[in-house]
Specification:
The complex is a heterodimer of chains A (about 575) and B (about 130).
Chain A (H helix, E strand, L loop, with lengths): L2 H30 L1 E3 L5 E3 L2 H12 L13 H30 L1 H17 L5 E5 L3 H12 L3 E6 L2 H9 L8 E3 L5 H6 L7 E6 L4 H14 L4 E6 L2 H9 L4 E4 H14 L1 H10 L18 E4 L3 H13 L3 E5 L2 H4 L6 E2 L5 H6 L7 E4 L4 H14 L4 E6 L5 H6 L4 E4 H14 L1 H13 L1 H15 L5 E6 L6 H8 L6 H4 L1 E2 L2 E5 L2 E8 L2 E4 L12 E6 L3 H10 L1 H9 L7 H9 L1
Parallel strand pairs in A: 3-4, 3-6, 4-5, 6-7, 7-8, 9-10, 9-12, 10-11, 12-13, 13-14
Antiparallel strand pairs in A: 1-2, 15-20, 16-17, 18-19, 18-20
Helix pairs in contact in A: 1-2, 1-3, 1-4, 5-17, 10-11, 10-12, 10-17, 11-18, 11-19, 17-18, 22-23
Chain B lengths: L2 H21 L11 H17 L6 H28 L8 H32 L2
The chains are: A alpha/beta (about 575), B mainly alpha (about 130).
Chain lengths: ~575, ~130
């Protein structure tokens, strides 16, 4: 018996018992009290008539005195019974209504519904723990790609947002603490189609516990967890969490990349972005002296990148002792002109507004721009809703942690090989990346690319695999042609070819594929479908490679052979 | 002593005894079967059913099922009685009485199972 039914039945015991007693007393009374029939003869009501009369009396339907007019004694008893049975009904109905509104029952029925929806999922889904700004962005991006997610979020108000969000796919959500392993199991941790667990609640300890539970209960799952401190990060990695996203490090890392090589930054930004969204742009920052406002966790991560990159900088911090700011730190918030001037804003190249308060960050940027319009401005954006303000302030580079984190998690979930490609790209230096950026810009039409991975396997590329097994060759360039007109090239770039353990970044177009290869590609939205049609359909593939439109029926094939 | 257990066992056993009291006697003889006894059996059975609501254990589910079977039998017996007498309060004929008593015997069997379950559960408890 389900929890809800059991709970409802248990609560209904007393009201139903009261009704049974009231009816019994009334019915027995009518059977016992003597009456007279139409001829004035003594008559007694049978059980059948008594039940009939009490039924319509108790429900206040009131057909009248049937089958014969009542005697005074019967009327007196009726009077008593009306009050008895009608109040019993009111009590019973009241109990049912309060039961429906009972928080325990509602919670139980929500849980049951959630469990049922999760159990019925028949495609790959991802378990997202924590539906904050990042979670919302992540689930939304997954849904736009037609991928399912199951959400566990502790705050019921956030969960209401999920219910109101109009996603193209059904996203079950449960309001419960995600660090409870029972909740995780209910949310489909052990479901055979669960593709991965993402622990991005704002509580680091909860994330740690989710990661541990997932690793122990279902070791084959990909686990991605958010960490805010290096301790937790190390702890998570120690028991095999696949990817740990540390949002302060991640943001600082992006900034360092932007300073070191804008090309590298753009490659990273574009490939992990959302398909179809406008591409990020970047004005190249100059090397020189920087000012860093706020020496919290973000500030420290940025400072360590500055030190690593050999950038000279000066810190402005309101509580230098508490945060352990370096020597030469200017004491102040950075929101007022004198502090900024003291830190040398007028001669500086760039400023990073990295406090945990968006209003202060905006104020820092605006004040600094007034002092030095040439300044390259970088702002940390904490609240997702403040995006318009930062855009309006004309900030050169906005560091929005939810955005960065959601994109990172999405890339890790959907195309794990992208991570290897991006680290290869970083090792290649600025020129290589700049070339890649111009190649990408040429095909992309200013909209974010779709990044996808295709293995040359029987499942995803049967035609290509068949041709290879028959002894034919499949050069990469052949696949990247348009199946509608092979003279045209698809707007797709092969980013990386994985063969066994080897990763080959940007393989030559005349390279020949082998069974078991994995391709990582980036292309304009919609090009994936065209490319896959060539890999799956032998006729399309043969047209792409040879230019011949091969007849598909056996008769025409025989004719073509004899000709 | 748990008052809930007392009430629970009381009604389960009472439903068996009330049904038995109605059934016992010559099968088709209308003098041996009293309409009040049938009514009492129906009411006691309904109460026993309600008391079994909401028990999530397996034995609770089986207990509820036996009670529902007994209710079904007894209510049909009551309906047969009402139809046979036309609601006149007179006794039904021998044929109708046979049908009523055999239906009630079914309920008696179901109530017997109920009591056996109750007893076996009590013995398992050992305290």
């Amino acid at each position: 018996m389900s929890k809800v039914t059991s709970l409802v039945l248990r609560r209904m015991r007393t009201p139903v018992l009261v009704l049974v007693f009231a009816y019994t007393i009334s019915i027995v009374g009518f059977v016992l009290i003597p009456g007279v029939d139409a001829q004035g003869q003594p008559w007694r009501m049978g059980f059948f008539h008594a039940i009939y009369f009490v039924s319509y009396m108790a429900t206040t339907i009131g057909f009248g005195e049937l089958p014969y007019a009542f005697s005074d004694a019967q009327r007196l008893w009726t009077l008593f019974c009306i009050y008895l049975t009608v109040t019993s009904w009111l009590y019973a109905i009241g109990s049912i209504l309060s039961l429906v509104q009972n928080p325990a029952v509602r919670r139980a029925s929500q849980e049951t519904a959630f469990e049922r929806r999760t159990r019925r999922i028949n495609e790959i889904f991802y378990l997202v723990c924590g539906y904050g700004d990042t979670g919302e962005l992540l689930v939304g991006s997954l849904a736009r790609r037609g991928l399912r997610a199951v959400v566990v979020e502790e705050d019921p108000a956030r969960l209401n947002d999920l219910l109101l969000a109009n996603f193209p796919v059904d996203v079950p959500g449960l309001a419960a603490a995600a660090d409870d392993s029972q909740t995780l199991i209910r949310a489909g941790l052990l479901h055979p189609l669960c593709g991965g667990v993402v622990a991005i609640t704002s509580n680091e300890q909860a994330n740690l516990k989710i990661a541990i539970a997932s690793r122990l209960l279902n070791p084959k799952l990909t686990v991605i967890a958010r960490a805010d401190s290096h301790d937790t990060e190390a702890n998570m990695r120690s028991f095999g969490t696949h990817f740990v996203v540390n949002n302060f490090d991640e943001s600082a890392d992006r900034l360092a990349m932007a300073l070191q090589s804008p090309g590298m930054f753009l490659v990273h930004e574009w490939l992990t972005g959302i398909p179809g969204q406008p591409l990020a742009r970047l004005v190249e920052p100059q090397r020189g002296r920087w000012i860093l406002c706020g020496y919290g966790r973000f500030g420290k991560a940025v400072a360590s990148q500055f030190v690593k990159g050999g950038v000279s900088f000066r810190v402005i911090e309101a509580f230098p002792e508490k945060t352990g700011a370096p020597e030469g730190t200017v004491n102040g918030r950075g929101t007022e002109a004198p502090t900024l001037e003291e830190a040398g804003t007028i001669g500086a190249t760039g400023i990073v507004a990295g406090t945990d308060n968006d209003t202060n960050n905006l104020s820092i940027i605006v004040t600094a721009q007034e002092l030095n319009p040439e300044l390259f401005t970088v702002a940390r954006q904490n609240q997702r809703t403040n995006r318009e303000l930062f855009l309006a302030a004309g900030v050169d580079l906005i560091m929005e942690r939810t955005d960065i984190m959601a994109h990172e998690v999405l890339a890790l979930l959907l195309t794990p090989s992208l991570e290897s490609f991006l680290s290869l790209a970083r090792a290649r230096g600025a020129d290589w990346n700049n070339q890649l950026v111009s190649r990408l810009a040429a095909i992309l039409d200013d909209l974010g690319p779709e990044v996808f991975s295709i293995p040359i396997s029987a499942e995803s590329a049967p035609a290509a695999l068949g041709r290879l097994q028959e002894g034919g060759t499949v050069p990469l360039a052949g696949l990247l042609r348009d199946p509608r007109d092979r003279e045209r090239v698809l707007p797709v770039i092969c980013l990386m070819l994985t063969r066994g353990e080897e990763n080959i970044p940007l393989p030559d177009s005349d390279r020949e594929l082998q069974p078991g290869d994995r391709l990582l590609l980036a292309g304009r939205e919609g090009s994936r479908r065209l490319l896959e049609s060539g890999l799956a359909n032998p006729n399309v593939l043969s047209y792409l490679l040879t230019g011949l439109d091969r007849p598909s029926g056996s008769i025409f094939r025989a004719l073509a052979g004899s000709r | 002593m748990n008052l809930e257990k007392v009430v629970f066992a009381f009604f389960i056993i009472l439903s068996l005894t009330a049904t038995f009291g109605f059934v016992v006697g010559d099968f088709g003889d209308q003098d041996h079967h009293n309409v009040y006894e049938l009514f009492a059996a129906v009411v006691v059975n309904l109460i026993a059913t309600v008391l079994k609501f909401g028990d999530r254990s397996h034995i609770g589910a089986v207990l509820l099922a036996t009670s529902l079977v007994a209710d079904l039998h007894l209510i049909i017996a009551g309906v047969v009685w009402a139809l046979a007498t036309g609601g006149s309060g007179l006794a039904p004929g021998t044929a109708a009485m046979g049908a009523i008593v055999s239906l009630a015997s079914g309920a008696l069997l179901a109530n017997g199972v109920s009591v056996i379950l109750l007893v076996s559960e009590t013995i398992q408890l050992r305290r």
